Amino acid sequence: xxxxxxxxxxxxxxxxxxxxxxxxxxxxxxxxxxxxxxxxxxxxxxxxxxxxxxxxxxxxxxxxxxxxxxxxxxxxxxxxxxxxxxxxxxxxxxxxxxxxxxxxxxxxxxxxxxxxxxxxxxxxxxxxxxxxxxxxxxxxxxxxxxxxxxxxxxxxxxxxxxxxxxxxxxxxxxxxxxxxxxxxxxxxxxxxxxxxxxxxxxxxxxxxxxxxxxxxxxxxxxxxxxxxxxxxxxxxxxxxxxxxxxxxxxxxxxx
Length: 255
Known about the structure:
Keywords: Membrane, Transmembrane, Transmembrane helix. By secondary structure, the protein is mostly helical. The protein has helices at about 1-15, 15-40, 55-90, 90-95, 100-135, 150-180, 185-205, 210, 215-220, 230-250; strands at about 40-45, 50. It has a two-stranded antiparallel sheet with strand order 1-2. Strand 1 and strand 2 (about 50) form a beta hairpin.
């Protein structure tokens, strides 16, 4: 299984789009850090602004980057891994080997998960260290409607915040995988994902977390949560991966 994941890793980095997206994200990460260091202020939502300090910066770094992650980077990586490889023939070359098809799918899922976890980990620690070095030093801070928190409390909040951010990215990736296996080409797949993310709010207000993920996380982590998207997000992940598995095991990629 490890060799299959290594093979998937090599194919991912062989795609020019992957390099452009990931290195572009790192550049955007540095640009946002510079932006926050200049203004030293961000927002919980359009009605609540907050001064940044050494303890509270990390969640707001994700807030500024969440649109790029949710609407561009994660969907394109998933679409390229599934639909793009099917159209280019790379997937056919992988599946003609004497490998169990489900193992190849598991390797793709594992790699997508590792990439998203890596992105969130890099972003989180960049935010933590950037806040400590560049923002006004404080001993306590607060987040959206929370009590006063010390360094350990702030770290716990940040870990929970980024865990929910990762859950949102997993939801988007799962939906993108399903569209990639259902739609005939990458452009339609990506368009379907974006339509789902934007149109979900018209289906149910509870799907707002897909459109305004960072704001929804603040509301979820409030002492009296103003939203609850965890169960719905997990449901989307399970359903999307189940449908993807069913399509993957039945579709003929070798012809």
